[in-house]
């Protein structure tokens, strides 16, 4: 029986050894599968991370492009606004200059009118002076004539027989 026990024991040992070996092999295989799974999972995570990074970069680029476009639009609107303000300033300046020129023209016309009135008054004054001088000359001649006539009348009356 000893042989039988020994052989059974050997058989059990052998079986234990093989089972142990199989377990170790299973462990190693499971470990390798776990490693492979983890590596595959890590690759998947890396790919997802890269994909997410690419999507993130695309989103960031899209936002940057939109922001750049908005800034460009704002800049253009500011430029248009500044141009409008400049045009309004130029228009107001032109309008002010036009009004100023009109006032100057009106003043010049008033001055010309006054000068014309003054010239007319001077001309009339000259005519009146000539008329006055003519009147004075006529009066002087009339007075001289009257005086001569009186002297002649006085002289005549002295020499007249009827006196």
Fold and architecture overview:
- With 163 residues, the protein is an all-alpha fold.
- It contains one helix and no strands.
How are the SSEs placed, and which strands pair?
Blueprint: H1 2-159
Could you give the distance between the termini? 227 Å
Order of helices and strands: H
What is the number of E strands?
0
Q: How large a portion of the residues is in β-strands, by DSSP E?
A: under 5%
Kindly name the structural category: mainly alpha
The radius of gyration over CA amounts to 68 Å
Average pLDDT level: 89
Summarize the structure.
By secondary structure, the chain is an all-alpha fold. The protein has one helix at residues 2-159.
Features:
0% strand, rod-shaped, 163 residues, 97% helix, mainly alpha
């Amino acid at each position: 029986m000893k042989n039988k026990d020994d052989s059974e024991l050997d058989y059990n040992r052998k079986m234990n050894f093989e089972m142990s070996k199989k377990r170790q092999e299973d462990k190693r295989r499971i470990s390798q599968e776990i490693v492979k799974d983890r590596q595959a999972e890590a690759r998947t995570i890396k790919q997802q991370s890269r994909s997410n990074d690419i999507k993130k970069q695309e989103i960031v680029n899209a936002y940057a492009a939109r922001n750049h476009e908005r800034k460009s639009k704002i800049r253009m609107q500011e430029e248009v606004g500044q141009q409008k303000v400049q045009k309004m300033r130029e228009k107001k300046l032109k309008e002010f200059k036009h009004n100023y020129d009109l006032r100057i023209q009106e003043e010049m016309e008033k001055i010309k009118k006054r000068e014309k009135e003054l010239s007319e008054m001077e001309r009339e004054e000259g005519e009146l002076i000539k008329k006055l001088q003519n009147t004075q000359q006529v009066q002087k001649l009339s007075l001289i004539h009257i005086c001569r006539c009186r002297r002649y009348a006085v002289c005549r009356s002295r020499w007249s027989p009827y006196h």
